[in-house]
From TrEMBL:
Membrane-traversing stretches: 206-227
Keyword terms, alphabetized: Membrane, Signal, Transmembrane, Transmembrane helix
Protein known as: Uncharacterized protein
Domain of life: Bacteria
Organism: Micromonospora zhanjiangensis
InterPro entries named in the record: TAT_signal
Length: 232
């Protein structure tokens, strides 16, 4: 066996090892992605008030008479929609405060657990540049740090659905993520499809790598046979 043949065999063996290592790495990454795909559409939000007490939100603001009270036990869908507008507002905030003129009309959302108020937020559905929200420093029973956030783009529609007398505005964009991530309704999610897609991609990667390894092995065998014949 001459020096050139030995170098060729070493290079092919190294290529085979690299392909096998790449396949193992991709397989591991795809397997790790499968559990995440199963929960697609979920968001990391602040926990709702304690489940043992009846949950409700109270909305008050300009051009309103009596505050609107929405209870989870009587209208869970509407309660979730309103609560979703404020539940993610943690941390130091992501927006700067605007002038009162630029903020426009303000509505206050007070979150209750039973008869106890736990959180309060100010919503500005028609602020300049898009909906804004504020977590006031003064919270029920405590004082923290005020923070401003970009509100969800569907804030006006959500407040209107809750009964707030908001005028329709042409060109209003519905939906969107605002400062958080829009949560789809549970019935629209299908985690099984995402898992199947990930597993299908994993299978194709493994088959491709297996084909490459077989081709390299066949090439090595052919070279070895050729060398043996020449040596004989």
């Amino acid at each position: 066996m001459n020096r050139t043949s030995r170098r060729l065999i070493i290079l092919l063996a190294a290529a085979c090892s690299a392909v096998a290592l790449t396949g193992a790495t991709v397989a591991g990454a795809a397997a790790a992605a499968a559990p995440r795909a199963a929960v697609t559409g979920t968001t990391a939000t602040a926990p709702k008030p304690g489940p043992k007490a009846p949950l409700s939100v109270r909305i008050s603001g300009e051009q309103m008479g009596e505050p609107l009270v929405i209870r989870a036990e009587t209208d869970e869908t509407l309660y979730d929609a309103v609560f979703d507008q404020v539940s993610w507002m943690g941390g130091a905030g992501q927006a700067r405060a605007l002038s009162a003129e630029d903020l426009g009309v303000k509505y206050t959302v007070l979150v209750f657990s039973g008869d106890v108020a736990t959180q309060t937020y100010d919503l500005y559905p028609f602020a300049k540049g898009g909906p804004r929200a504020c977590r006031p420093a003064k919270q029920p029973g405590r004082t923290g740090t005020a923070a401003w956030f970009y509100g969800r783009l569907n804030m006006p529609e959500t407040l209107r659905a809750a009964g707030v007398p908001l005028a329709e505005r042409p060109g209003t964009v519905t939906g969107g993520i605002g400062g958080g991530v829009a949560v789809e309704r549970a019935e629209t999610l299908d985690p099984g499809k995402d898992v199947d897609r990930v597993l299908g991609d994993l299978q194709r990667v493994l088959l491709l790598n297996a084909g490459v390894v077989i081709a390299i092995t066949a090439g090595l065998a052919a070279i070895a046979l050729l060398i043996r014949r020449r040596s004989g």
